[in-house]
Amino acid sequence: MFRLGHCASTRTACGSRSRDGRTLGVPLAWFPRLLHATPAQRQDFELSRRGIHWDAIDENISVEGLLAVQGDMTHPANIAA
């Protein structure tokens, strides 16, 4: 089981480290709310057994979503021809 122990973000990516030392990172482009948030908003998060929550921007990322390499599932992706 991947249990979150730490979360950090940069201008372009969000990364998590499990309690056993494994790391997982995803591009912020996958999560528009995080991409457009201020650095202070991105640093204001809560870790839980289920994932990461940013109250100020109403964003939740589940551990399952991170492990399945899924971005924001609330809006369908625009597919260009």
Could you walk me through the main structural features you see in this protein, from its secondary elements to its overall organization?
This protein has helices at 32-36, 39-43, 63-67, and strands at residues 4-9, 13-18, 23-27, 46-47, 51-54, 59-62. The chain has 81 residues and is α+β, with helices and mostly antiparallel strands. The protein has a single domain, classed as Uncharacterised protein PF10387, DUF2442 (NE0471 N-terminal domain-like, 2-Layer Sandwich), CATH 3.30.2020.40. The strands form 2 sheets. Strands 1-2-3 form a 3-stranded antiparallel β-sheet. It has a 3-stranded antiparallel β-sheet with strand order 4-5-6. A hairpin with a 4-residue loop joins strand 5 and strand 6 (59-62). The longest helix is centred in the middle third of the chain and has 5 residues, at 32-36.
The separation of the N and C termini measures 39 Å
Looking at the structure, the CATH topology is NE0471 N-terminal domain-like
Strand tally: 6
Assembly category: single chain
Rg from Cα? 12 Å
- β-sheet strand percentage: 25-35%
Q: Look at the helices and sheets and give the structural class.
A: alpha+beta
Relevant CATH superfamily: Uncharacterised protein PF10387, DUF2442
Quickly name the level 1 CATH class: Alpha Beta
- N-to-C SSE series? EEEHHEEEH
Please count the helical segments.
3
- Major sheet attributes: 3 strands, antiparallel
Under the CATH scheme, the architecture is 2-Layer Sandwich
